Description:
Blueprint: H1 9-12, E1 20-21, H2 22-27, H3 33-40, H4 44-52, H5 59-69, E2 76-77
Parallel strand pairs: 1-2
Helix pairs in contact: 3-4
Amino acid sequence: xxxxxxxxxxxxxxxxxxxxxxxxxxxxxxxxxxxxxxxxxxxxxxxxxxxxxxxxxxxxxxxxxxxxxxxxxxxxxxx
Length: 79
């Protein structure tokens, strides 16, 4: 049996959070692709895959990336 959790952004006060893609967040960050890759423990190519939407990071890495980019996980649009 699967359990699901629904979080209302309205009730958390995050309803005004701007939702952006990983491409927008990575390109707009103060870090280079190489710096992000080093921090994340992956190759620069993997960061490009995430940035371009060819691949998605596993949830623990996604959470770490969001912390680095200073954005809540709910603020990232996944296409």
